[in-house]
Amino acid sequence: MSTSKASSSRPAPAKPEAAPHWYSRFTPATLVNGKFAHDSQWYSMQIGQEGYVLKANNTKQTLELTDTEVNPEDGKQLWCFVGNNAEGFRIYNLAAGHRLRPRRSHQHGQRQRR
Question: How many CB atoms are located within 10 Å of the residue 81 CB?
Answer without folding.
Answer: 20
